[in-house]
Amino acid sequence: MDERYFWPSVAYALKTTKPLVDVLRLVDSEKEPAMGFIYGAMDAAKEQIAKNLGGEESTYKEIWKILDDKWDFQLHRDLHAAAYYLNPQFKWESNFSTHPEIKSGLSKCMERLIPDPSDFTKVDEQLDEYRYKRGFFGMRAALGSYKTHALVEWWDHFGDQVMELRFFAMRVPGLTCSSSACERNWSTFNQVHTKRRNRLSTTKLNSLVYIMYNKKLKLRYLQNRSSKKDDDPLINQDLPSDDEWIANPNDEESTKVGDEELNLDVDEMANEIRGEDDIGDEDNEIVFDDVDGFEDGLNNYEYDLPIPNDPNSNHNSVDENND
Predict the structure, then answer these.
(1) Which entry of 14, 18, 34, 126 is 20 to 30 Å from 164 by CA?
(2) CA atoms in the 13 A half-sphere facing the CB of 56
(3) Of the spans 108-112, 203-207, 299-303, which averages the highest pLDDT?
C-alpha cells in the first residue's frame, strides 16, 4: 500500500464524515427530540465540510451534491423546516436561513396539523409575537434561557400568551427523527421469543417484553445517575433508549447497581407477572393468575419443545395436554 495516497485519503474521509457523524449523534441522542435541530445541523455539517476542505468550491462541490441528493429526495420533510423555524436557537440568530423551503414547510405543516380555520388564523397572527420577541418572548427569562432549556419545555413555559401557537410549537419539535427506539424494542422481542420459546401468546409476549424493556431502562437510569455520564449511542454496544420517560425518575431505589442485576432472565420476568418466587417445572406448564386486568390470565408460559434432530433431547414429542 502506497502511503503517499493512503494517509491523504484517510484525512479526506475524516474531514468529510466527522460532521455527518455529529448529526447522527444528535439524531440518536436521548437528551431531547432532535426534530428542531436536524435542519440546522445538516446546514452546519455542510458548512463544516466546506471549511475542512479549504473553502474552495471545487473541493467540496461533489460532496455537497451527494448530501443534497440524499437530503432532498430521501430525508428532508416539511416537519424539519417547520421545527427549524420554531426553534429560537436558530430563528433569533443572525445566520438564520432565509431559504423559501422553510416558510413553505411551516405553512404546509400548519395546514396539515391545524384543520380548524379560526385556530389557523390565530397561529398565523401569533407567529409575529414569536418572530419579533413580543410579550413573554421578550422577557429577560425567555431571552436568557432559550439556548439552555429544552425546546419543548421552553415553549411550554413562555407560550402562555399564544396558546394556539404554543400547542403547535410543542407538537412539532417534540417529534422524534429516529426509529432507534423501535429497533431496540424489537431486539427485546427476539430475546423473549426464541426457537425453544415459540408458543407464547401475544398478550403474554407483550407483557414480558414490557417488563424486560422497562427494567433495562430503570437499571440504565440508575447507572447513569450514579456515574453522571452521557452515553454515546454510536459506540455503546447496548444502545440506550429514547423512551426514558417510561422509567420513573423519582424512584427512591438505591443507585448502586451491580453487574449481576443486569443479567435479565425471561423466567424472572414471568415471576414478576405471576407474583411468586419460583417457577415450577411440573408438566412444563405455568398457570398465571389474573394480573393487571388481563382478561384470561397469562397461561402456558413456556413449553420446553425439543429441537429437531437434537441427540440430547429427552422428548420425542410434545405432550398433547400442553396444547
Answers:
(1) 34
(2) 4
(3) 108-112
